[in-house]
Amino acid sequence: MVEFKKVKNENIKTLELYVPIVARVHGGSHPEFHEVHRIFNEMIIKIKKTKLKKLELDKEFKELRKITDNYKVPTDTCESYEAVYNILSKLDEAYYR
Questions:
Q1: Element (H, E) at 38
Q2: Looking at the chain, which terminus has fewer C-beta neighbours within 10 angstroms, N or C?
Q3: Which residues have a Cβ under 8 Å from the Cβ of 3 and sit 6 or more positions away?
Q4: What total number of domains does the chain contain?
Q5: pTM for this entry
Q6: pLDDT tens digits for 46-90?
């Protein structure tokens, strides 16, 4: 969980900035990203509430893997979309180490 905390701390601000923008820009042609946005918001709430306790994100990561086809970036998207999926994938991987 130490590695997850490190990856989270290094990347959460970027995700908080990129996820809403990517949802706005690509949500019309990739409506699944609205689900990614919703799940990300749920994760942020849990992360902020769970400072000292065990963070439970199994459900969220499972949903994200399903919705994103294991973080597969669509070919018609921008670097920000790709960055969001790459960071979420890193977080997912770190969470389960």
A1: helix 32-49
A2: C
A3: 94, 97
A4: 1
A5: 0.92
A6: 988 876 567 899 999 999 999 999 999 999 999 999 999 999 999
